[in-house]
Design goal:
9% strand; 112 residues
Length: 112
Amino acid sequence: MSGVLEAALHSVGYVLGVVLGVAYYGWLEGSASGQTVGKRGMGIRVYDLRSGGPIGPGRAIGRYFARILSAIPLLLGYFWMLWDAEKQTWHDKLVGSVVVPVSAYPVESWPN
């Protein structure tokens, strides 16, 4: 395979991965349930800290991209929840969300 073709395939694969990630998180975390498949299995959900309820697809997509900022400084943004009063990561703080247990904030349907 030529170098140009290989580079083009890598670029297409990268773009496809980003598009699928945006669609997956935007649809599921932005839904009324606020749960991806993994969050559903763990019994947790993404919840709007400011007004309660779902964060919606726009903020879910923003949260998806904000994870990059949480990961850059040695994953510090992910560990931030360990000492934050609201138990938020940096990507939660940026979009005004929080991850909560479903037992405290029940889900009516999945996905919705």
